[in-house]
Amino acid sequence: MSYQTEKLKQEKVIRDPVHSHIYIQDQIIMDLINTTEFQRLRRIHQLGTTSLTFPGAEHTRFSHSLGVYEIVRRICNHFQRNYPTQNGGQDGLWDDHDRLVAECAGLLHDIGHGTYSHTFEHIFHTNHEEITQAIITSKETEVNQVLRQMGPNFPNQVASVINKTYPNQQVVQMISSQCDADRMDYLLRDSYFTGAQYGNFDLDRILQVMRPYEHGICFKKSGLHAIEYYIVSRYQMYLQVYFHPTSRSMEVILAHLLNRARLIAQHPEQYPEEFQPGLLQPFLTEQFDITRDLTQYLQLDDGVLTTSFSGWRTFPDPILADLSTRFLDRKPFKSAQFTEETKPLLAHLRQLVDAVGFDSTYYTATDNSYNQPYDVYDPTDQHPNAQIELMEKDGSLIELSQASLLVQTITGRDVGDSRFFFPKEMFQPEAAGLFAETATQFQSYIQNDHIIQPKESLHD
Amino acid sequence: MSYQTEKLKQEKVIRDPVHSHIYIQDQIIMDLINTTEFQRLRRIHQLGTTSLTFPGAEHTRFSHSLGVYEIVRRICNHFQRNYPTQNGGQDGLWDDHDRLVAECAGLLHDIGHGTYSHTFEHIFHTNHEEITQAIITSKETEVNQVLRQMGPNFPNQVASVINKTYPNQQVVQMISSQCDADRMDYLLRDSYFTGAQYGNFDLDRILQVMRPYEHGICFKKSGLHAIEYYIVSRYQMYLQVYFHPTSRSMEVILAHLLNRARLIAQHPEQYPEEFQPGLLQPFLTEQFDITRDLTQYLQLDDGVLTTSFSGWRTFPDPILADLSTRFLDRKPFKSAQFTEETKPLLAHLRQLVDAVGFDSTYYTATDNSYNQPYDVYDPTDQHPNAQIELMEKDGSLIELSQASLLVQTITGRDVGDSRFFFPKEMFQPEAAGLFAETATQFQSYIQNDHIIQPKESLHD
Amino acid sequence: MSYQTEKLKQEKVIRDPVHSHIYIQDQIIMDLINTTEFQRLRRIHQLGTTSLTFPGAEHTRFSHSLGVYEIVRRICNHFQRNYPTQNGGQDGLWDDHDRLVAECAGLLHDIGHGTYSHTFEHIFHTNHEEITQAIITSKETEVNQVLRQMGPNFPNQVASVINKTYPNQQVVQMISSQCDADRMDYLLRDSYFTGAQYGNFDLDRILQVMRPYEHGICFKKSGLHAIEYYIVSRYQMYLQVYFHPTSRSMEVILAHLLNRARLIAQHPEQYPEEFQPGLLQPFLTEQFDITRDLTQYLQLDDGVLTTSFSGWRTFPDPILADLSTRFLDRKPFKSAQFTEETKPLLAHLRQLVDAVGFDSTYYTATDNSYNQPYDVYDPTDQHPNAQIELMEKDGSLIELSQASLLVQTITGRDVGDSRFFFPKEMFQPEAAGLFAETATQFQSYIQNDHIIQPKESLHD
Amino acid sequence: MSYQTEKLKQEKVIRDPVHSHIYIQDQIIMDLINTTEFQRLRRIHQLGTTSLTFPGAEHTRFSHSLGVYEIVRRICNHFQRNYPTQNGGQDGLWDDHDRLVAECAGLLHDIGHGTYSHTFEHIFHTNHEEITQAIITSKETEVNQVLRQMGPNFPNQVASVINKTYPNQQVVQMISSQCDADRMDYLLRDSYFTGAQYGNFDLDRILQVMRPYEHGICFKKSGLHAIEYYIVSRYQMYLQVYFHPTSRSMEVILAHLLNRARLIAQHPEQYPEEFQPGLLQPFLTEQFDITRDLTQYLQLDDGVLTTSFSGWRTFPDPILADLSTRFLDRKPFKSAQFTEETKPLLAHLRQLVDAVGFDSTYYTATDNSYNQPYDVYDPTDQHPNAQIELMEKDGSLIELSQASLLVQTITGRDVGDSRFFFPKEMFQPEAAGLFAETATQFQSYIQNDHIIQPKESLHD
Q: Domain B7-243 carries which CATH code?
């Protein structure tokens, strides 16, 4: 189905350091950007606690969303120039009538993301994908009102692209597949803003070799190495940026802090002072209900959280106050790797932490980067068409990991590690006062090869 | 005077996209970075409302401060390698005993900056330079405690570099002069994060031609063009980034919003609902007193402000609620240039704005970019040694604007413009309902050459 | 007139570090690139002797020509997307029928350039513009044969774009005007390969604000600063790269060397050994005749010259042998600035050079960078439409220097200097042996302010 | 042994686009750069025929050699700052007395390289490593004369670094090991000038984690991923740049051309015209003798070869003339992959080529990129200390491929392919005239899966 779009009288451009400029050509795109729900993304960091490790990484989901839109726009241009359909897409080529739904879906794919999503979702059982759908389809939102101007069914179509049920899989795969506009933008962007050079693959070249086919999007075989390089870049970014122990440690503190706040919010009578959860109130005291709580959810942002923490620094619960301070002043826990074999030893370490006077429920954690919300290329994925397919000159297809040893190596492998987090003070016996001896014991336990982890595994 | 510094056992590096890495070699620098006052700079944008125009510009005073430190460190290295004194600096060459005070001053030069400084200072009469001095010299701060470890007088010495009274003017000019580490870092950094390419001068070359002399720092004449280019870069950044009408418009809204909040905070009884100023309370209701209010000041950050605004969206004062929404959802005022001649016409425009139902006190403003807190090179500056001096091969000096026509051109000139700000609705008669006619009248008044401003001057 | 172009079945791309990729879409463009005349440009440096100052600057007229084509292609795309004519260009908008002639002219605009053009033309009275016309229009060349496939008149049309007589001035100005594809490519390219950062203006932005109008090409006023920055970049590149004293000094040696070779070629009988001018023969012994000598001209390239010089190192004419060695081994002359006032003193300096035993005809020179073949923006240019015009929103035009003080400053000014070149040995009395005293006298004459030039003016 | 170096009064800098600037601090380095043998490297491309595929790759061995020197200089600085020996290197730390020998060796490591080395050495049995040694140690060269100023044994010491026998393996490994200054510079440089982004690893980070130890140079384990990325970059550069079929095809033509010229030079009487081999004469007619022919060797450069080819275009040997034209006008042979299994079929293909009238000796070739002169990391290398060793925090070592799966994958693998080269005309039956049928047969033979190579393997 084709939508009548109102073109802007004059193309507008937004300056973007990653793509140089974002080109806005349709009134509806401009209007979506100007909605309150979309503007809210300016106040949500793209990488959560990562800026506490890489100080440049202050970029937001707002600029990322613009970047995804821009890549989608460029893919559509390339498809329309080189692979235009003659029969409404029956020939497996590109039907430009789908352009607008693709561009809107690209722009809005992260609209449901909230503050520190990974931790927040884990603690409060929100789900950013559900919320994205809700924002697009609920009549109350500005986003929905803008989309409805294209027709009553348009919001559902955009939403269906994001949940992958849209009939034209070319559109779906532009937004969600192993080499989609989302991943390509975030690698380039995270690389640019962190200053890590590892995410800097060759976008121009990948766009050149991308092509539509009957089952979605594939890549010309001649582009194999460009894609290989993109996969390696992604792998390096996981290892060096996304799984960085310090960022994970700050997430651990954040999670404990929110859990403690929930406990207090549910038992405020136990404290001599009024507890002020601010805009977090509904999330701390009740089970999240997407229909009822969407408005409250949309009021949250990173500043709301840190403002609450700032107030809690002096609250008369020592754990809440201390964890708030650690988060705001960036005092990460230390961490050590553990393995399946050494895992049983953690119980003793927790006891020592307790013995020094830190409640191990709030002052230790284990964390497994395998569970991080970043997907390494996985050929066993249940969406087979989300794999990367290469097209030979004769039209036959080959799955990427069949053609590339490097990709195969990365694919068959776990990336990341398991870590045990604990207060730095456990390594500063002189700071532990009366408990110096226990701390010393803890430290030797950690550092001794035969007991827990060796050498490089320790991280500040 | 020389300070015994504790070197880190192992150099630490912080990844930075502008300088590639920041090198930390002294324990005291690490400790200063870890103070609560310094970490707070992570929550204060370097460019205030500019990210509302350039979405990449989310960088903070934290990374800028690290960058200034890094440039100071590199200058000291260069001076010590090429111009080491033989007699404690009597020969006009570099005395490396001053390195640590220089590095600390570079790191801390912005420590007193608060949220949206320019507007905030204007409305609440705070002064970031005074506060910087206070943070460094007050015994209560963590920064002061770290500095005192070097000796009881060390904090004062660092503070005196920042207020320019430190005896060694080479150190002073590293931090504050026309071509200092502060300006060099912010041009490169603002250029990098906005994506505007104009601030991208040749730092390596400038560091090569920089040299100490008896009155401070000068530049080898052979570096003339590199410095010329730096000055032109700065000029372009003012025109294209710092004075951008949209950012200024958002500052206008912020100022009106804070003024309105103050009025309400001082008359809360007039509202049916409790007004919640949050951490802004002391600033809204009392005159700022630096001794008494430093702690409160240090609790503020950009998130605190936007969190308050978020709460105010639904407060039963329509002006406060509307301005809060405009700020959070980025609904800038429109603006038109005016001149001394057309200025008298503004009164009538304000009447028309009032007539449509917008209180012109809160919905219009004039703003003069000449007053912006950015200094264009000014040879009439009362600190003559803050000018840029070039040294010929024979040791004689020539002031930069005497040697460069380009600089002279820029120097003798006002940069920027005067603008009148008003709601966009005044240009959308169809949205003005009953007042459509008044809006039409307003629009024609603005757009007609003979009355107010011509052509290009209008900005969304 | 419209040409039927054969599109390539599949777009071809050539990797280019400046534009990322060059996109080839037409068979004729591919065929032109594959001609012998065009491939020859691979063996001619873009910047002549500049690589002797900036070692990275080894780039050739081949890649520059591809770059100019690519920028023309992008301009045509932008024009066709945003300003397509409705009536064959009568409305002042873009007629895409002219695209192919524009692209060919962009590709071929430098096809007549020869080895070290500036010096070569000066000595041998060749003219690269005439030769460009000849290559395009002579039936003997492969270029002409390719062009003729489009129609018998096509070569003339392409040639007429280059000599500026093509009716559609939009096409002409794409290739030759103050802000054309030629200048834009060479600034970016020379900046990239020298490593000088000064030529790095914002091409994307300039292409956005460029637009066709009835008299050619102008720029939207909102792009003023981008163009200002481009002009300043060009100015800086003249000062820092194109007019560099060392490169000019090497050109002086080259000119003297070719002159000496001509003298010898015309009097070979005076030497005990056969003089081998190689492929330079016809140029040394006869007046260049474009009709007769085109084939010989096309055999020359930079390698042919240096190969001849290599052979001449041992020829029994001491001046030829020495100058050949100086050129190949990069032994530049030293130079000092002079002014109109000090110019009369040069005669005495030449006498001293002679006195030390260097023939001042071949071992000194004066050179005036004002005469360099690079044009600084000049509003008095007799082609008024080659100026840069800015278009206001209401369609009125303003000439750039009227709108920009920076440009005005640069425009009204001579750029560059006058230099006197002489052997380095004149500054090494110890190397002058018997003539040490004369050398000392020379040196003091040069270095003494009151006599000839002061301070910074001296260059190795 | 320590050498007294004369420091330059003032550091000199050479602009370099890869490292920003090259810093020259010693008179001897300046003097070496100014020798005739070193300046000659300006006339030898770093990448031979690669610029015929990537037009930007015109960079020379001159700038590469400067780059290697600069990296060595930075490594020495880093070692001296962080790992200075206390006992002449007995402690496995860095002895800065070795700095000068390291810097000279870095600068001169490629001084023996000639024009199109790979092909030239293959055809004429020269050996650039032997020649490097000869240039450094023969009393006749300017390089040797400069080196001897440091002491009579200094040239031998520099030479011994290059042939890996210098006692301090730290110095040796700076110049020749799996991650040395040579490889690091060429990857960055080749990446920069080709525009391929694949060689762009993180030099700063690698220099940070590099450290001296008793057996040479190793890397801190924490730098694992930076090194992994460097290895993958190198792998990608091999695949995408160094082994590019078009460049190899042009090398094939060059080799056949030189072979043909040798045949003619040895039988000049068979031709009606005098054959002019120019400076190639001694190489064509006699076995190369390094003692006798060094002077002649040093006269060769890329321009000398192309100048000869230019003259040969019209020589009355059709094969020589045609191959010369193909090389100068860049008319590569086409190529197809073959395998061990399909190899026997090549004989028939050669017969078809002969049948069409191309002498298959000069118009076909097989080429195996495994034999290319680029080394992929190989742990079975007989120089075990040339492997990359990682140092854990406790001082223990682990070989890189043991710690990195990616490296292991690359290591255990052949990179590259085997290709059969033949004239493009074999695929243009219409151009084959009478032999159209044979050409058609050839083409079907190549393109049919079951006979020779499939799909993607064909390259223009």
A: 1.10.3210.10
Largest interatomic CA distance in chain D: 81
Does residue C141 carry a pLDDT above 80? yes
Chain B contact residues (CB < 8 Å to D):
11, 13, 20-21, 82, 204-205, 208
Structure tokens, C25: 């879409």
Please, which chains are in contact with B (at least 3 CB pairs closer than 8 A)?
A, C, D
Q: Higher model confidence: residue A460 or residue C144?
A: C144
Cβ atoms within 10 Å, residue B54 = 24
Rg (C-alpha) for chain C, rounded Å, is 24
pTM: 0.91
* Facing B36 at nearest CB: one of A301, A303, A329: A329
A 10 A CB-CB count for C430 gives: 8
Question: Which of B15, B56, B330 lies nearest to residue A54, judging by beta carbons?
Answer: B15
B22 φ, ψ (degrees, to nearest 5): -105, 125
User: Chain C residues within 8 A (CB-CB) of chain A?
Assistant: 11, 13, 20-21, 82, 204-205, 208
Listing DSSP states for A194-232 in one string gives H--GGG---HHHHHHHEEEETTEEEEEGGGHHHHHHHHH
Query: Does D302 sit within 8 Å of C39, measured CB to CB?
Result: no
Confidence of residue D4 (pLDDT cuts 50, 70, 90): low
Mean pLDDT of the region D131-149: 97
Is the distance from CB of C301 to CB of C44 less than 8 angstroms?
yes
d(Cα A236, Cα A406) in Å, to the nearest integer? 13
Q: Which residue has the higher pLDDT, C217 or C440?
A: C217
What is the rounded distance in angstroms from the CA atom of residue C404 to the CA atom of residue C178? 15
D121-139 average pLDDT score:
94
Tokens of A440: 């010393």
Residues A33, A69: contact at Cβ < 8 Å? no
What value does the CA radius of gyration of chain D take, rounded to a whole number of Å? 24
Residues of B with CB under 8 A from a CB of C: 197-198, 200-202, 221-222, 225, 228-229, 232, 235-236, 239-240, 392-394, 396, 405-406, 408-410, 413, 455-456
Q: For B364-392, what is each residue's pLDDT tens digit? A: 999 877 644 334 445 455 554 468 999 98
pLDDT of amino acid D378: 53
Q: What ipTM is given for this predicted complex?
A: 0.93
Best residue in A11, A18, A78 to probe C by mutation, most C CBs within 10 Å? Answer: A11
Could you say which of C225, C240, C392 has the minimum Cβ distance to residue B456?
C392
Chain A: residues touching D (Cβ < 8 Å): 197-198, 200-202, 221-222, 225, 228-229, 232, 235-236, 239-240, 392-394, 396, 405-406, 408-410, 413, 454-456
Band of residue A454 on the pLDDT scale cut at 50, 70, 90: very low
Average pLDDT over residues B354-363: 95
As a whole number, the mean pLDDT across chain C is 89
Are the C-beta atoms of residues B144 and B159 closer than 8 Å to each other?
A: no
Which pLDDT band, with edges at 50, 70 and 90, does A182 fall under?
A: very high
Q: How confident is the model at residue C450 (pLDDT cuts 50, 70, 90)?
A: very low
Q: Where are the alpha helices (DSSP H) in C85-220?
A: 99-108, 117-124, 128-137, 142-148, 154-162, 169-175, 181-194, 203-209
Q: Which of A61-65, C447-451, D368-372 has the lowest mean pLDDT?
A: C447-451
Tell me the C-alpha distance between D445 and D450, whole Å.
9
Same fold, D7-243 and D245-371+416-457: no
Is residue A305 within 8 Å of A323, Cβ to Cβ? no
Among residues A113, A96, A111, the alpha carbon closest in space to that of A36 is found at A111
- What is the CATH class of A245-371+416-457? mainly alpha
Q: Where are the domains of chain B?
A: 7-243, 245-371+416-457
